[in-house]
Automatic annotation (TrEMBL):
Protein family membership: Belongs to the glycosyltransferase 31 family.
An example Gene Ontology molecular-function term: galactosyltransferase activity
Name assigned to this protein: Hexosyltransferase
Enzyme class, first EC level, given as a word: transferase
Protein's UniProt keywords contain Calcium: no
Domain DUF4094, first and last residues per copy: 17-101
GO cellular component, one term: Golgi membrane
Organism name: Nyssa sinensis
Subcellular location: Golgi apparatus membrane
Amino acid sequence: MSWKSRGVDSTSKSVVSRKLTLFLCIGCFCAGMLFTDKMWTMPEAGGISRTTGMEDERLKLVSEGCHPRIKDGKRESKGILRTLDKTISNLEMELAAARAAQDSILRGSPLSGDLRITEPTQKKKNLMVIGINTAFSSRKRRDSVRATWMPQGDKLKKLEEEKGIIVRFVIGHSATSGGLLDRAIEAEDKKHGDFLRLEHVEGYLELSAKTKIYFTTAVSLWDADFYVKVDDDVHVNIATLGATLASHRSKPRVYIGCMKSGPVLAQKGVRYHEPEYWKFGQPGNKYFRHATGQLYAISKDLATYISTNQHVLHTYANEDVSLGSWFIGLDVEHIDDRRLCCGTPPDKQV
């Protein structure tokens, strides 16, 4: 074969090889594009699929409410909630007592002398705090109490230190604070040192509010088993009252007094008229069981309850009714002690 024929043959083979190579390149490029498109598309589709699956699971859990898990943990959760509720309640009571103590100290009115600072901070354990409800116009009654059953001077301090019995006249302020009436009480307190001044404006229609503030203030200042309220026209045998209350020391929530259940007076203009008589049912209905207002005692837990919830406790026209209403719905033992009733013979009087 001649060199010429070999060159032609070689040239044709080269052309064929180039065309084949070109087709192969184009084919590879198309195959590559197709493969690449699939590689990019599949993960995206897969991701969407997985995300949708997860959303479906979430929606399923939400729609089912996770009932099996909740049901399994119900008993344990209830136990934890009870503990938390108890802890929160204790903290609220301590906070309320601390706030009342701070307000009393800053205002400088609860006690006279150095007792204003020492008593709230020491918190000595006492048997009872006796608050004698009095008014600006009751100077003669107070002098009568001082001359009969309420110790004076060092004897009053000794009663507190040795017997754990605190006795104070309880009074607020006049409508014009710092006026003549307030100055008269301050002079009397300076002489005797036996007043508990409240952040309260005095008034006959404000006795329910005054009672609430009294217990709140007393709890913040003294730690006692019982807190007593007595009117300034009642004479008390402290030894008998102390023995009576001491016999109930083991009971957590007691309300002791001369219990009654008088009629709800709807008629206007009569004494003890109840403006909210309609809350007690049909006309002629009676009040729930409660102690007469002249003398009663409540345990520490109940006094603390009043202190903690003072802002939401409703007050009725009559102070004794208001106090009784605050304990409705609570696990409270009502103790009817007839020796605490007015009109009893002198030898039965406490």
